[in-house]
Amino acid sequence: MKKPVLRAPRTLLVAAMTAVLTLTTVALVSPAAGAAEGKIVGGSNATTEDFPWAVNVKGQNDLQCGGTLVAPNKVVTAARCVYGWEPQDASVIAGRTDLNTDSGTIAGVRSIWIHPKFSRVDGYDVAVLSLNKNLDQRPLALAESWDDHLYTNGNQAIALGWGHTEEYGEYSPVLQKVTVPLTSDSYCENSYGPFYKAGTMICAGYHEGGKDTCAGDTGGPLVFGDKLVGVTSWGRGCGRADSPGVYARIQTVSQDIRDQINR
Predict the structure, then answer these.
(1) How far apart are CA 100 and CA 97, in angstroms?
(2) In the chain, N or C terminus with fewer CB closer than 10 Å?
(3) Residue 248: enclosing H or E segment and its boundaries?
(4) Is 178 in contact with 209 (CB distance < 8 Å)?
(5) Could you tell me the CATH number of the domain that includes residue 115?
(6) In whole angstroms, what is the distance from residue 117 CA to residue 185 CA?
(7) What's the predicted TM-score (pTM) here?
(8) Do 127 and 187 belong together in one domain?
(9) What is the CB-side half-sphere exposure of residue 19 using CA atoms within 13 A?
(10) 94 by DSSP, 3-state: which?
(11) CA-CA distance, 212 to 152, in Å (whole number)?
(12) Could you give phi then psi for residue 150, rounded to 5 degrees?
Protein backbone atom coordinates (compact mmCIF):
# COMPACT_ATOMS: atom_id res chain seq x y z
CA MET A 1 0.00 0.00 0.00
CA LYS A 2 -11.29 5.24 -4.63
CA LYS A 3 -14.87 4.52 -5.35
CA PRO A 4 -17.08 2.25 -3.35
CA VAL A 5 -14.56 -0.47 -2.65
CA LEU A 6 -12.31 -0.07 0.36
CA ARG A 7 -8.95 -1.73 0.74
CA ALA A 8 -8.46 -4.59 3.08
CA PRO A 9 -5.29 -4.18 5.06
CA ARG A 10 -5.44 -1.38 2.64
CA THR A 11 -8.31 -2.27 4.99
CA LEU A 12 -12.09 -1.86 5.31
CA LEU A 13 -13.88 1.45 5.83
CA VAL A 14 -16.52 1.93 8.44
CA ALA A 15 -20.09 0.93 7.80
CA ALA A 16 -20.96 4.51 7.01
CA MET A 17 -18.23 4.59 4.38
CA THR A 18 -18.74 1.07 3.10
CA ALA A 19 -21.37 2.14 0.62
CA VAL A 20 -19.05 4.74 -0.78
CA LEU A 21 -15.42 3.64 -0.36
CA THR A 22 -13.23 0.53 -0.34
CA LEU A 23 -10.87 -0.22 2.56
CA THR A 24 -7.16 -0.46 2.11
CA THR A 25 -6.95 -3.98 3.46
CA VAL A 26 -9.23 -5.17 0.74
CA ALA A 27 -8.53 -4.26 -2.84
CA LEU A 28 -10.09 -1.16 -4.34
CA VAL A 29 -11.86 -0.91 -7.66
CA SER A 30 -10.83 -2.24 -11.04
CA PRO A 31 -7.52 -0.84 -12.20
CA ALA A 32 -7.31 2.12 -14.49
CA ALA A 33 -5.95 1.57 -17.97
CA GLY A 34 -2.59 2.89 -16.87
CA ALA A 35 -2.23 0.09 -14.33
CA ALA A 36 -1.76 -2.63 -16.89
CA GLU A 37 1.82 -3.33 -15.87
CA GLY A 38 0.34 -4.32 -12.51
CA LYS A 39 2.92 -3.56 -9.82
CA ILE A 40 1.70 -2.32 -6.36
CA VAL A 41 -0.59 -0.89 -8.72
CA GLY A 42 1.46 0.61 -11.53
CA GLY A 43 4.79 0.45 -9.70
CA SER A 44 7.92 -1.71 -9.85
CA ASN A 45 10.05 -4.12 -7.83
CA ALA A 46 11.90 -2.72 -4.83
CA THR A 47 14.32 -4.24 -2.31
CA THR A 48 14.71 -4.07 1.43
CA GLU A 49 18.37 -3.22 0.80
CA ASP A 50 17.25 0.09 -0.72
CA PHE A 51 14.37 0.52 1.75
CA PRO A 52 15.60 -1.24 4.92
CA TRP A 53 12.89 0.26 7.13
CA ALA A 54 10.05 -1.30 5.07
CA VAL A 55 8.70 -4.31 6.99
CA ASN A 56 5.92 -6.84 6.58
CA VAL A 57 3.42 -7.24 9.43
CA LYS A 58 1.74 -10.62 9.86
CA GLY A 59 -1.37 -11.53 11.84
CA GLN A 60 -3.69 -14.49 12.23
CA ASN A 61 -5.12 -16.28 9.19
CA ASP A 62 -2.31 -14.98 6.95
CA LEU A 63 -3.54 -11.39 7.23
CA GLN A 64 -0.72 -9.10 6.16
CA CYS A 65 -0.05 -5.39 6.28
CA GLY A 66 2.89 -3.09 5.75
CA GLY A 67 4.88 -1.25 8.36
CA THR A 68 7.80 1.09 8.91
CA LEU A 69 10.67 0.59 11.32
CA VAL A 70 11.05 3.91 13.17
CA ALA A 71 13.35 2.71 15.98
CA PRO A 72 15.27 -0.55 16.47
CA ASN A 73 12.28 -2.16 18.22
CA LYS A 74 9.33 0.00 17.09
CA VAL A 75 7.19 -0.31 13.95
CA VAL A 76 4.53 2.13 12.77
CA THR A 77 1.56 0.63 10.95
CA ALA A 78 -2.15 1.40 10.47
CA ALA A 79 -4.51 1.14 13.44
CA ARG A 80 -7.19 -0.37 11.18
CA CYS A 81 -4.71 -3.10 10.34
CA VAL A 82 -4.06 -4.35 13.88
CA TYR A 83 -7.27 -3.33 15.64
CA GLY A 84 -8.39 -6.29 17.73
CA TRP A 85 -5.12 -8.19 17.36
CA GLU A 86 -3.38 -9.77 20.32
CA PRO A 87 0.40 -9.15 20.42
CA GLN A 88 1.17 -12.86 20.57
CA ASP A 89 -0.62 -13.38 17.24
CA ALA A 90 1.47 -10.79 15.39
CA SER A 91 4.98 -10.76 13.97
CA VAL A 92 7.18 -8.47 11.89
CA ILE A 93 9.49 -9.54 9.06
CA ALA A 94 12.41 -7.23 8.26
CA GLY A 95 15.03 -7.52 5.53
CA ARG A 96 12.97 -9.87 3.35
CA THR A 97 12.38 -8.51 -0.16
CA ASP A 98 10.70 -11.72 -1.36
CA LEU A 99 8.26 -13.21 1.13
CA ASN A 100 8.68 -16.62 -0.50
CA THR A 101 12.23 -16.79 0.92
CA ASP A 102 13.46 -17.14 4.50
CA SER A 103 15.89 -14.22 4.39
CA GLY A 104 15.85 -11.43 6.93
CA THR A 105 14.69 -11.44 10.53
CA ILE A 106 11.38 -12.26 12.20
CA ALA A 107 10.52 -10.43 15.42
CA GLY A 108 7.63 -11.04 17.77
CA VAL A 109 5.37 -8.26 19.03
CA ARG A 110 5.44 -7.41 22.71
CA SER A 111 2.67 -4.80 22.72
CA ILE A 112 0.37 -2.92 20.35
CA TRP A 113 -0.50 0.76 20.83
CA ILE A 114 -3.40 2.17 18.82
CA HIS A 115 -3.87 5.93 18.69
CA PRO A 116 -6.60 6.75 21.23
CA LYS A 117 -8.36 9.05 18.73
CA PHE A 118 -8.46 6.43 15.98
CA SER A 119 -11.72 5.93 14.18
CA ARG A 120 -12.34 4.78 10.64
CA VAL A 121 -14.21 8.03 10.02
CA ASP A 122 -12.08 10.66 11.72
CA GLY A 123 -8.59 9.38 11.02
CA TYR A 124 -5.65 8.97 13.40
CA ASP A 125 -5.11 5.64 11.63
CA VAL A 126 -1.79 4.92 13.33
CA ALA A 127 -0.50 2.15 15.57
CA VAL A 128 2.91 1.39 17.06
CA LEU A 129 4.16 -2.17 17.54
CA SER A 130 6.79 -2.73 20.22
CA LEU A 131 8.97 -5.68 19.22
CA ASN A 132 10.50 -8.34 21.43
CA LYS A 133 14.00 -7.57 20.10
CA ASN A 134 15.98 -4.91 18.31
CA LEU A 135 16.36 -5.17 14.54
CA ASP A 136 19.55 -4.36 12.65
CA GLN A 137 17.83 -2.48 9.82
CA ARG A 138 18.06 1.31 9.61
CA PRO A 139 14.94 3.09 10.93
CA LEU A 140 13.20 5.89 9.04
CA ALA A 141 12.79 9.38 10.49
CA LEU A 142 9.31 10.78 11.17
CA ALA A 143 7.82 13.90 9.63
CA GLU A 144 7.64 16.43 12.46
CA SER A 145 5.03 19.04 13.31
CA TRP A 146 7.13 21.77 11.65
CA ASP A 147 7.64 19.84 8.40
CA ASP A 148 4.88 21.57 6.42
CA HIS A 149 7.10 21.64 3.31
CA LEU A 150 7.01 17.85 3.11
CA TYR A 151 3.27 18.02 2.39
CA THR A 152 3.35 20.45 -0.53
CA ASN A 153 0.91 19.64 -3.34
CA GLY A 154 2.81 17.82 -6.10
CA ASN A 155 5.65 16.43 -3.98
CA GLN A 156 6.61 13.06 -5.49
CA ALA A 157 6.31 10.58 -2.62
CA ILE A 158 7.12 6.86 -2.61
CA ALA A 159 4.73 4.23 -1.27
CA LEU A 160 5.81 0.64 -0.62
CA GLY A 161 4.16 -2.67 0.13
CA TRP A 162 3.52 -6.32 -0.67
CA GLY A 163 -0.18 -5.81 -1.44
CA HIS A 164 -2.38 -6.51 -4.44
CA THR A 165 -0.94 -5.62 -7.84
CA GLU A 166 -4.39 -4.78 -9.18
CA GLU A 167 -7.84 -4.28 -7.75
CA TYR A 168 -9.19 -7.70 -6.79
CA GLY A 169 -5.81 -9.11 -7.79
CA GLU A 170 -3.15 -11.10 -5.96
CA TYR A 171 -0.59 -10.14 -3.35
CA SER A 172 2.94 -9.58 -4.59
CA PRO A 173 5.52 -11.77 -2.84
CA VAL A 174 8.17 -9.18 -3.81
CA LEU A 175 8.25 -5.70 -2.28
CA GLN A 176 6.80 -3.10 -4.63
CA LYS A 177 7.24 0.67 -4.83
CA VAL A 178 5.28 3.36 -6.60
CA THR A 179 5.86 7.11 -6.93
CA VAL A 180 2.72 9.21 -6.48
CA PRO A 181 2.28 12.98 -6.13
CA LEU A 182 0.76 14.40 -2.97
CA THR A 183 -2.52 16.16 -3.72
CA SER A 184 -4.15 19.24 -2.26
CA ASP A 185 -6.72 18.94 0.50
CA SER A 186 -9.34 20.50 -1.77
CA TYR A 187 -8.79 17.81 -4.42
CA CYS A 188 -9.16 15.08 -1.82
CA GLU A 189 -12.27 16.70 -0.39
CA ASN A 190 -13.77 16.81 -3.89
CA SER A 191 -12.98 13.11 -4.28
CA TYR A 192 -14.19 11.85 -0.90
CA GLY A 193 -16.35 14.59 0.60
CA PRO A 194 -16.72 14.49 4.39
CA PHE A 195 -14.82 11.19 4.68
CA TYR A 196 -11.57 13.06 4.08
CA LYS A 197 -10.19 14.85 7.16
CA ALA A 198 -7.49 17.34 6.21
CA GLY A 199 -5.96 17.50 9.68
CA THR A 200 -5.26 13.80 10.02
CA MET A 201 -5.07 12.57 6.42
CA ILE A 202 -3.15 13.24 3.19
CA CYS A 203 -3.91 12.01 -0.32
CA ALA A 204 -1.52 10.91 -3.06
CA GLY A 205 -2.23 9.86 -6.61
CA TYR A 206 -2.75 10.93 -10.22
CA HIS A 207 -5.97 12.42 -11.59
CA GLU A 208 -5.96 9.74 -14.29
CA GLY A 209 -5.25 6.95 -11.79
CA GLY A 210 -3.09 3.96 -12.72
CA LYS A 211 -0.60 4.20 -9.82
CA ASP A 212 -1.67 3.52 -6.27
CA THR A 213 -1.44 1.38 -3.17
CA CYS A 214 -3.99 -1.43 -2.83
CA ALA A 215 -5.28 -4.12 -0.50
CA GLY A 216 -2.51 -5.59 1.62
CA ASP A 217 -0.48 -2.38 1.48
CA THR A 218 -2.37 -0.92 4.43
CA GLY A 219 -0.02 0.25 7.17
CA GLY A 220 2.91 0.63 4.80
CA PRO A 221 5.05 3.76 4.39
CA LEU A 222 4.53 6.87 2.30
CA VAL A 223 7.91 8.60 2.15
CA PHE A 224 9.15 12.00 1.03
CA GLY A 225 12.38 13.80 1.86
CA ASP A 226 13.76 10.74 3.66
CA LYS A 227 10.97 10.95 6.20
CA LEU A 228 7.80 8.99 6.89
CA VAL A 229 5.01 11.39 5.88
CA GLY A 230 2.10 8.95 5.75
CA VAL A 231 0.76 5.50 6.52
CA THR A 232 -1.33 3.73 3.88
CA SER A 233 -4.90 3.85 5.16
CA TRP A 234 -7.80 3.62 2.70
CA GLY A 235 -9.10 4.55 -0.71
CA ARG A 236 -11.75 3.89 -3.32
CA GLY A 237 -10.61 0.96 -5.38
CA CYS A 238 -7.01 0.72 -6.56
CA GLY A 239 -5.63 3.05 -9.20
CA ARG A 240 -8.98 4.53 -10.17
CA ALA A 241 -9.20 7.95 -11.76
CA ASP A 242 -9.88 10.81 -9.33
CA SER A 243 -9.65 8.34 -6.43
CA PRO A 244 -6.27 8.97 -4.77
CA GLY A 245 -4.96 6.81 -1.97
CA VAL A 246 -5.59 8.20 1.51
CA TYR A 247 -2.81 8.07 4.10
CA ALA A 248 -2.63 8.88 7.81
CA ARG A 249 -0.77 12.20 8.20
CA ILE A 250 2.30 11.49 10.33
CA GLN A 251 3.00 15.18 10.95
CA THR A 252 -0.12 15.37 13.11
CA VAL A 253 0.77 12.39 15.32
CA SER A 254 4.58 12.48 15.34
CA GLN A 255 4.81 13.42 19.02
CA ASP A 256 2.37 10.65 19.97
CA ILE A 257 4.52 8.16 18.06
CA ARG A 258 7.68 9.54 19.65
CA ASP A 259 6.14 9.07 23.08
CA GLN A 260 5.72 5.38 22.26
CA ILE A 261 9.26 5.13 20.90
CA ASN A 262 10.63 6.54 24.14
CA ARG A 263 8.67 4.19 26.39
Answers:
(1) 9
(2) C
(3) strand 245-249
(4) no
(5) 2.40.10.10
(6) 21
(7) 0.87
(8) no
(9) 1
(10) strand
(11) 19
(12) -70, -15
What is the extent of the structural domain holding 109? Answer: 54-139+254-261
Q: What single letter denotes the amino acid at residue 238?
A: C
Question: Residue 159: what are its φ and ψ, rounded to 5°?
Answer: -110, 145
**Nearest Cα to 40, choosing from 202, 154, 174, 155?**
174
The reply to whether 108 and 167 lie within a common domain is no
- The answer as to whether 66 is a domain residue is yes
SS3 75: strand
Q: Determine the Cα–Cα distance for residues 128 and 115; give it in Å rounded to an integer.
A: 8
Angle at 77 between CA 75 and CA 83, to 5 degrees: 115
Question: 85 and 170: one domain?
Answer: no
Instruction: Kindly give, in sequence order, each residue whose CB lies less than 8 Å from that of residue 9, ignoring residues fewer than 6 positions away.
Output: 23, 24, 25, 63, 64, 65, 78, 80, 81, 215, 216, 218, 219
One domain for residues 75 and 90 = yes
Q: Using one digit for the tens of pLDDT, what is the confidence trace for 100-124?
A: 999 999 999 999 999 999 987 788 9
Q: SS3 for 195?
A: helix
| Non-local CB neighbours of 101 within 8 Å, separated by 6+ positions | none
Angle at the Cα of 59 from the Cα atoms of 53 and 63, rounded to 5 degrees: 95
- The domain tally of the chain equals 2
What local confidence, expressed as pLDDT, does residue 255 receive? 97
Length of the chain: 263
